[in-house]
């Protein structure tokens, strides 16, 4: 797929306009052999914009429109296929409609999302949307002279100045561009569309996706997946002097998933249907959690199934982050720690915890991890964890109490963890 072209691009305008820029966009996309659909929700005045009832109505109308487009273009579009998703370009109130529609309806999925003059709040929950695999790439364009964004956030709830100041969020598939002299509607010149939007729309979609342990029903298939994950362990950790002592013996991980299959979050290659990474995060009973934290003397190979806690409603859990590993051929050496594969896996894992919190009232009280590598240490710190001890091999033990409200005051913390903590604090 060297010359990727999006199967369809949708555009959605702002308020108090008939958005003539969309006709220009249609011509330019046609020049690049890209199909286009213009979503016109008619002239929408300020009185209606100020009322939440009318704003919600536009979100529902767009949701129906999205599925009508899928139905009309079945030969082109299939949201379950990451290469056949529509893309969307949204301006101003259009960004509000698209953002909150994706937040409410997890079946709304796009390849590329382009926002300009966005009025979504700066802390909008992109972590959940990325964790649910609802967008392959997101691009937010900010005009530093955009006065309108600053006005709107003061008078309309659930809006913000993200079209001027950007979102408080980062990810490798989340791009923010700042244009120093742009005002609210300066994005629609031919040169900008040709040089900024077209190259972005033609980026090849990433072929990685998340599979959660609870979604794997075939135990034979699950066992094969665990074997593939173990091969990643061997390539990733085998050179470490303590690997043999901690290496998981045959059958042990299968005994774990009999108790709780969702200790695993897998990263899959969608094309070749093979495992490219995983996280093993197991809830364990309080006594063994404290024992690992204080002594560091339980090897991974010694963790028995009877200390694992299954997910049940209304729980407070202590989770041992046993391991995270990515296949070497999936990592980009030029991107360092913050790169697509690791972020995809982390956001998928965090979304799982968010789902359990919202749907089952299950919260993680504490995280514990033993960092074997420098990358592992940096990941622990990115999760807000602090070193509290060392294991018998001298590896640092990291820990965090998620009930500590001061964590949210830290600047250097993974956005997904920040969102998880905000949700925890909102659940009584």
Task: Give a brief rundown of this model.
The protein has 428 residues and is α/β, with parallel strands linked by helices. The protein has helices spanning 21-31, 46-49, 52-72, 93-104, 126-131, 147-155, 162-165, 190-201, 219-237, 243-246, 252-259, 286-295, 340-360, 374-382, 415-426; strands spanning 9-12, 36-39, 87-91, 110-116, 135-143, 174-179, 208-212, 264-269, 274-283, 316-326, 363-370, 386-390, 396-401. The longest helix is centred in the N-terminal third of the chain and has 21 residues, at 52-72.
- In the CATH hierarchy, the architecture of the largest domain is 3-Layer(aba) Sandwich
Separation of termini? 48 Å
Following the backbone from N to C, one meets helices and strands in this order, namely EHEHHEHEHEHHEHEHHHEEHEHEHEEH
Count of DSSP strands = 13
General shape: elongated
Overall mean pLDDT stands at 91
> In what order do the strands lie side by side in the largest sheet?
7-8-9-10-11-13-12
> What's the tally of helices?
15
Task: Report the uncertain regions.
Answer: none
**Mind summarizing the main beta sheet?**
7 strands, mixed
Radius of gyration over C-alpha positions, nearest whole angstrom: 23 Å
The portion of residues forming beta strands comes to: 15-25%
CATH topology of the largest domain: Aminopeptidase
Structural class label: alpha/beta
CATH H-level superfamily of the largest domain = Gcn5-related N-acetyltransferase (GNAT)
The helical percent reads 25-40%
């Amino acid at each position: 797929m060297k010359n990727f072209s999006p199967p369809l691009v949708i555009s959605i305008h702002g308020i108090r306009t008939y958005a003539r820029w969309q006709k220009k966009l249609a011509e330019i996309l046609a020049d690049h052999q890209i199909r286009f659909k213009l979503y016109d929700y008619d002239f929408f005045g300020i009185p209606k914009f100020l009322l939440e009832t009318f704003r919600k109505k536009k979100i529902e109308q767009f949701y129906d429109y999205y599925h009508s487009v899928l139905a009309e273009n079945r030969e082109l579009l299939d949201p379950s296929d990451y290469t056949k998703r529509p893309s969307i370009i949204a301006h101003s109130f259009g960004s509000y409609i698209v953002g909150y529609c994706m937040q409410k309806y997890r079946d709304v999925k796009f390849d590329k999302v382009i926002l300009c003059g966005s009025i979504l709040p700066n802390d909008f929950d992109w972590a959940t949307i990325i964790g649910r695999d609802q967008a392959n790439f997101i691009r937010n364009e900010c005009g530093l002279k955009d006065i309108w964004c600053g006005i709107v956030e003061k008078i309309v709830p659930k809006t913000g100045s993200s079209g001027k100041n950007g979102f408080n969020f980062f990810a490798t598939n989340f791009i923010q561009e700042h244009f120093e002299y742009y005002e609210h509607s300066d994005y629609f010149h031919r040169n900008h569309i040709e040089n900024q939007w077209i190259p972005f729309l033609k980026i090849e979609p990433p072929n990685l996706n998340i599979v959660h342990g609870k979604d794997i029903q075939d135990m034979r298939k699950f066992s094969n997946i665990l074997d593939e994950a173990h091969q990643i362990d061997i390539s990733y950790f085998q050179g470490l002097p303590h690997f043999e002592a901690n290496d998981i013996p045959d059958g042990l991980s299968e005994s774990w998933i009999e108790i709780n299959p969702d200790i695993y979050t897998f990263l899959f290659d969608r094309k070749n249907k093979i495992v490219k990474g995983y996280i093993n995060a197991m809830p364990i009973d309080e006594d063994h959690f404290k024992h690992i934290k204080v002594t560091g003397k339980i090897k991974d190979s010694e963790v028995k199934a009877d200390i694992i806690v299954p997910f049940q409603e209304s729980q407070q859990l202590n989770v041992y982050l046993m391991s995270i590993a990515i296949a070497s051929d999936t990592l980009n050496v030029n991107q360092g720690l913050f790169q697509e594969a690791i972020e995809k896996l982390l956001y998928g894992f965090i979304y799982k915890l968010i789902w359990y919190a919202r749907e089952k009232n299950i919260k993680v009280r504490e995280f514990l991890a033993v960092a074997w590598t420098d990358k592992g240490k940096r990941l622990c710190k990115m999760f807000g964890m602090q070193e509290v001890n060392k294991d018998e091999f001298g590896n640092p033990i990291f820990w965090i109490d998620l009930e500590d409200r001061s964590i949210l005051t830290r600047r250097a913390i993974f956005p997904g963890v920040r969102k998880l903590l905000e949700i925890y604090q909102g659940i009584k």
